[in-house]
């Protein structure tokens, strides 16, 4: 809802700002829009707060609002909601037209308030709550009867138990291997196909996996890795190839430690296209005069790549690297779909889910989430700093 | 300043688009039935529900892990109650039940009645939220009429009685093909020793190794490993006896005791024996990568002969498979040891518990405990069996479910509940599964597996 509002609000304030002679005046109408939004958010905040104290009154809605079990009723409900919205918006837009002015700070609150409220409610508060939870036992910390403060116990469990050490080790392998291989392959491919015939098609082929969801990709690859007894017909592509080559079929998903690598292949398969696209665009953006100047100086081939291409696309490489790293840290779908975290393939995000929603140990789950957050911070900080540096250069 | 005409139009259409999205979300199926008011003619005797005052027109929400089309059978079985009392029972059916129920309760949005797929989860919810209401006295009176004392124990947490069984299943079954057994001249083994010698005979009869006596599959998404726990429990009950079994479940003996190691090794003589498994799939490792749903299917093409799995596996055979005593597939009782007087039966069950104390909820749970409900629900099919003593076996639809129902009602049966379901979640649906999977997939040493589970016991 707030998304569709933004352009309109921006328009309103822009036209007002340019037209008005005194300090950034704005109409009461625009303010009303803002206050309306604040009211909505305040309502949500109120409900959430009330639910904490178990004080939500039982609301009896009119039956035509809640019992839309027939097509006619559903349509009727839709028309009702549309009309309601049109009515409210017409009222607000009408007020936008009024010419009265209000001071600057109220306008600021009206426009920034809803966004701040949303951030506070949807991001900051859950974040803080998770952080607190990570120092508590399995029950929610705000449950006074059952919550129990355990200090750093959850974190020490993570770092000292062998099962969790495997999880941390796997996450490390993922975070190092995926960006390395995906960016490496993407870069290689982008350079090789640059300005060749059929470039668009070659790019499209590599980019295609990006369009597949992680779960979809995992299911596809699980079939590719599928194992059947040597004597039986293979249904997995890779094992059929092995059999054709006269080798024994291999349990790709089961055999420790290589199974983690085979899961990583899925992620690389998806992310290489992304890396390739961005890098390819960056390569095309290298000014021709630089390339020509280098040529005149007698640089070509590998040295051109090393001394001209790489330095020129460094910011793009960095963005790709960081983005893929963060995606990888959050990897959950692939592991859950392909192994369910068994066979020593679990990663932090998957374990976070398992602990929170299978074992209902919310303390341990929160600790894993916090750990993930802590690992992401340096990556983000690094990216922000690099962005600043490149902006300064410009 | 005034917005110009075009801008205003854009803004409005944006709002409209948003409205459509909101409406589309808002008018989703609420999953409830319509209100069929008033008491009228009903298939059941309405007298037991007259003690609950002022319930006509009220509604009860239920939440379960069962989904359509099976959920339709439940709604049909609840209809007579609705006709009697005028209470509207709203069913919410979700495969995400197990992950969602705790979250829903903790966020203050519990259903009135929940059908827990296993008592371990009920225990977790009781311990972690305290929101479950003990079984109402009216309901308990009906439970006492219909269920044996053992069943009450499984729904009891720390001395308080919270849940009673809905549908139950017997796990002490070995699936086989009656026709394949007849063709090969094999007899149904009556003791564990006969079972082992039959397995050896099958191995000897198929020296090329293309046909194995057993097939197995323990993969089940994030519950992978649970079929191994059934094997261990069944063997534990047979080899160490019911007393030891109870102590083992209650952790009065350590999980890694020497007796336990013996039992696991006995299970290992089948599940980790490359001569015995895994017919149709490959080596021992494939037991871990094969889903339990697929696990028994090679029986149909003759590449394995036996698959140990609960009675509910009847639903997994392809359409058109004749599941009966002389048909394509059927199950025999997983035999006791030689010389055993008792007939141990391992069972699992769903449990019903309530979250709110209102007259209509009391009335509804009382109905769910009744013999009328068990019989009506059994008639609706989907292999429903209840441990309800007054369930008429004739009402049970499938032959295998009839067999299970007979086991439940057999006075010589030594019934014990699935131990993993009664252990704390960290073990029963955590380390026990995980380590059992490693035991099969990675060939992890038995003692190391048991030590690891013991260590994880909270």
CATH superfamily grouping of the largest domain in chain B: Periplasmic binding protein-like II
Measured on Cα atoms, how large is the radius of gyration of chain A?
28 Å
Order of helices and strands of chain A: HEHHHEHHHHHHHHHHHHH
Structural class designation of chain A: mainly alpha
The number of helices of chain B is 20
Task: Characterize the overall form of chain A.
Answer: globular
Q: What is the highest CATH level, the class of the largest domain in chain B?
A: Alpha Beta
User: In order across it, which strands form the biggest sheet of chain A?
Assistant: 1-2
CATH fold title of the largest domain in chain B: D-Maltodextrin-Binding Protein, domain 2
* C-alpha geometry of chain B: globular
Largest sheet of chain A: 2 strands, antiparallel
* Residues in helix, % of chain A: over 70%
Q: Please, what is the average pLDDT of chain B?
A: 86
CATH topology of the largest domain in chain A: MetI-like fold
* Biggest sheet features of chain B: 6 strands, mixed
Strand content of chain B: 5-15%
Output the structural class of chain B: alpha/beta
Q: Mind telling me the CATH class of the largest domain in chain A?
A: Mainly Alpha
Low-pLDDT windows of residues of chain B: 1-40
Classify the helix fraction of chain B into a percent range: 40-55%
